[in-house]
Design the sequence.
C-alpha cells in the first residue's frame, strides 16, 4: 500500500466512525448501514432504549453477528453518554 491508499483508508474509517444525530440518538455511518441492511426502522425510534428493545427482539429470534456488535456499540455509547 502506498501513502495515498493509506490516507484514503484512514479517512474512510474516520468517516464511518463519525457520529450523526438521528432523532435523539447518535449513530455512526457504519451502524446506520448495518441497520439499513437488516431493514431496521431506526428513524422511527424516538430514543436509544426503543431501538435497543427492537434489536433485542430480533436478536432473540436469530443470530446476526454484525447486528449484535452494533447493538452492543449503541448500548455502550448510551451507557457512557
Sequence:
Amino acid at each position: 500500500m502506498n501513502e495515498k491508499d493509506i490516507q484514503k483508508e484512514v479517512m474512510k474509517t474516520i468517516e464511518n466512525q463519525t457520529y450523526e444525530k438521528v432523532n435523539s440518538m447518535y449513530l455512526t455511518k457504519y451502524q446506520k448501514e448495518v441497520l439499513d441492511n437488516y431493514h431496521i426502522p431506526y428513524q422511527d425510534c424516538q430514543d436509544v432504549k426503543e431501538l435497543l428493545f427492537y434489536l433485542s427482539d430480533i436478536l432473540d429470534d436469530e443470530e446476526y453477528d454484525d447486528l449484535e456488535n452494533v447493538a452492543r456499540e449503541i448500548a455502550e455509547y448510551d451507557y457512557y453518554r
User: Anything to note?
Assistant: The CA atoms of residues 4 and 13 lie 14 Å apart. The longest strand covers residues 19-22.
